[in-house]
Amino acid sequence: MKFKYCAECGHALEDIKLGDDECKICPSCKRIYGNNPLPVVEVLVVNEYNEILLLKQNYISEDKWTVVSGYMVEGETIEEAVAREVKEETGQIVTKWQYVSSYYFEPKGLIMIGFIVYVKKAPFAESNEVDDHKWYKIHEIENVIARENNCSGMHFDMCKKFLRKYPTRDEAERLLLDAQKDNPGKWVDHSRVTAHCAEKIAMHCGMDADKAYVLGLLHDIGRKFGVFHLRHVSEGYKYMLSLGYEDVARICLTHSFNQDKIEAYVGNFDASEEDTEMIRVNLKKTVQDDYDKLIQLCDAIAGAEGVMDIVDRMNDVKSRYGSYDPDKWQTNLDLKEYFEKKMGIDLYVAVDKEKYKPY
After folding, report:
1. Which residues form the Nudix hydrolase domain (predicted)?
2. Are residues 48 and 135 in the same domain?
3. How many separate domains does the chain show?
4. Which of 20, 72, 143, 302 could bond 193 through an S-S bridge, CB–CB 3.0 to 4.6 Å?
5. How confident is the model at residue 1 (pLDDT cuts 50, 70, 90)?
6. End residue of a domain, out of 136, 162, 188
7. Residue range 37-73, pLDDT digits in tens
8. Is there a single domain that holds both residue 11 and residue 45?
9. Domain boundary among 109, 130, 162
10. Mean pLDDT of the chain
């Protein structure tokens, strides 16, 4: 912070050099002033639904929204300052935080210390500094966040890589239940069987079992919007992207394609030309990893009543749609062999085929 006059006696300050540092000194009382920036915490607040909390502060901007921020006070740690500012300005209680980055904001001589924090959604508190509060979906942020003469937009940009790309198990269950209300059907139990299989296989392979469960549970979430064939792929992809769940969006896209060719889809091509092209382009760009392969395998053994033999399941699909791409058929069998080698046990033993039921 730059001073022109002494805070003790009011005398005009003079330049002085101490070692390598440029400083100010009061010629009257000899107090020295370092050229030190003021520390400010800057906080992106995220709730359990992956929503982001922004503030309307008219003294900063009348049409844009900002993140939580505030000066540190004497005697507190950075983490304490983060929790205090969030509670004072929003009423939310921080349960977890993640340091993001720091940078110098030259126009005001501030050192900005950036965090993401996680809270359980609660009623807002009144604050003299805040005119309004609002929870936003991630895809809505860019059009409303302040950037001109404000650090909020920069902080959001830096936080993006730290944001969770798939929901918690509880939130995934809620999303599936909501979808079931909109479009009930056997697909819901099929999704639960897929999730069960994905979790069990992941546990044997050293993969993240919670992530595998969530991806399996939501792979068909596009069916929330109606009785669709190919269109459920594009609807699920767009829906999950709108919530900021990029990992789930990817699975909504890849689960039906164990190769990168859209022509191998089993079912009707009922998506729009625009969405069909979107699927085609994104499949070509995607380098599939073990989570993509895992959900493809689990989708290929998950019936609505329980775990099925993979050949029986593919024959069932073939009988309903009249055909089954032979390359896709063989790739499913290759996936079974691939994961059995990774697990070191039989696939059907790993997923408890004979006993597990989704209800």
Report:
1. 36-164
2. yes
3. 3
4. 302
5. low
6. 162
7. 889 999 999 998 889 999 999 998 889 999 999 999 9
8. no
9. 162
10. 93
Q: Which residue has the tokens 């300052």?
A: 81
pTM: 0.75
Q: Are residues 263 and 320 in the same domain?
A: yes
Shared domain for 30 and 175, answered yes or no, is no
pLDDT digits (tens, 9 = 90+) for 179-197: 999 999 999 999 999 999 9
What residue numbers bound the domain in which 20 lies? Answer: 1-36
